[in-house]
């Protein structure tokens, strides 16, 4: 306690010397903004929080932390699900002020500050008609943690992982030096590659320089199906895997159970994106849209109407391309149909499966609830007004939470909930593995009402086998050409801390069963590297870095011999002496 108070006093003086850098104590808005994470369970009560305004200020901050060896954490977007990985009981560093971006038209690269969110990156890049390989979710995912962990994207089938598109990295080393590392910089080449999936082990990254690619209108949908169509949807997934070979195509299928009228209710969402204008023939994703009743089945993509709509000169932006059509006769909301859309819209629909659905307790409200628990007009408003909603998300969320928390920081999360991500790595999806995904999600859903559950979600997110073929060698996180693997996500959400042990135990059992089936189906191997960003906290660091661990330990010894980064959380690479 004495050390941390001494450190805080030095940090106060530091703020006076560095305008734009500010220290916050509990009770202030700046403190809340600094410690807030996506969930309550990953938000922690820090001793103080500090927002550096410049790299130079951050360099002085890390020197103070190293001097007193006090616990700390570094937060980019705060989307980590794991307690104490980017949160702390000590000094919380929030990088939100390091949010500058600059696009260089001469070499078509972009510099992105570590305090940026992917949402704002996509908005920034849109006028240039260029884009980056970035986070797939529109729920405020930060650039920093996503890139430091590897970075699976809706563009990965075309361009690989996020870390395979990094050209330069600026980093504040644990001794306070500010360096720029790249594959061309002989002095810091080892550091550059260690930061390609090496997490928060080597210092604090402040900026990335990324490749960019041309961005046209995309084509896609976010469809939702009831439990009665589960077998048809699973068969459609298999058909997609067998027939769709274009790298522009990507799907994420989520088997999601929530409570409706006190009983588990399944909605299977199929988020589909073709990252190019819709082709004139062989339209993608027909195997899914044909499952919807009404004229959706006769013209699954509504393409005939859309072509006429554009030929008439009505095209102005993606949000307007929605010709009228006959809605399905049943009361299920089948979601947002196939249509041209901007990448900002793609980013918005990617978050729909992960939205919290409040338990349906009645159908007597002004707007009738359909079987899926969604209202189509509200859903469309969400997608095409996402930017406006997100800018007010914190204020709206706080307005809905208790004004007098029963314990410190309760309700400070962006979502007033507890939860975890967990995953196994798979190289392909078979019908047997997809069946087991559906079965495990249903089994876990039986406990929603008895153990304070909010949702059970298990993803099917297939990738091409060649996604690692363009990767530069030497990355911290192992991914070899010809051995494409992707995460099969398990995402549980619940209400109360008293149920943590139950849900974490159930999640581990679910993951173990899925792993057994994946091994039996030839969809994975025992020694594949686990994905840092979607792993539970008790996954051994050896499982993340496999054969690269010892070499990474030597790099860490070189740049952090005093183990400053050992004062923060995360998958800690042990120091290895030369």
UniProtKB/TrEMBL annotation:
Signal sequence range: none
Sequence ranges assigned to domain FAD-binding PCMH-type in this UniProt record: 41-215
Pfam families, per database record: FAD_binding_4
GO molecular function: FAD binding; oxidoreductase activity
InterPro entries xrefs: FAD-bd_PCMH (IPR016166), FAD-bd_PCMH-like_sf (IPR036318), FAD-bd_PCMH_sub2 (IPR016169), FAD-linked_Oxidoreductase (IPR050416), Oxid_FAD_bind_N (IPR006094)
Superkingdom of this protein's organism: Eukaryota
Keywords carried by this UniProt record: FAD, Flavoprotein, Oxidoreductase
PANTHER family registered for this protein in UniProt: BINDING OXIDOREDUCTASE, PUTATIVE (AFU_ORTHOLOGUE AFUA_1G17690)-RELATED (PTHR42973), FAD-BINDING PCMH-TYPE DOMAIN-CONTAINING PROTEIN (PTHR42973:SF13)
Family in the record: Belongs to the oxygen-dependent FAD-linked oxidoreductase family.
This protein's name: FAD-binding domain-containing protein
